[in-house]
What we know:
mainly alpha
Amino acid sequence: xxxxxxxxxxxxxxxxxxxxxxxxxxxxxxxxxxxxxxxxxxxxxxxxxxxxxxxxxxxxxxxxxxxxxxxxxxxxxxxxxxxxxxxxxxxxxxxxxxxxxxxxx
Length: 105
């Protein structure tokens, strides 16, 4: 019987089947959203085979997308990229008062 190890050691990120850190949560969210989409499509009366096809396509594409993000950005790369988008390209300072008052504490 297979047993899966999740933690690799102390002070190391959680890794499961190659996915690291937050990507495990992203994959879980993708699978839950796929299940919800399948349920909604089936509830509104779409054919079960079409619902199954939609579920397989959404699940597979989401699965591959999360693994692609994991491979491209790694453990913290995506968070760093999103944080860098919030940094202004330059600061506009119209006065020297900020710098001249630094030593007057």
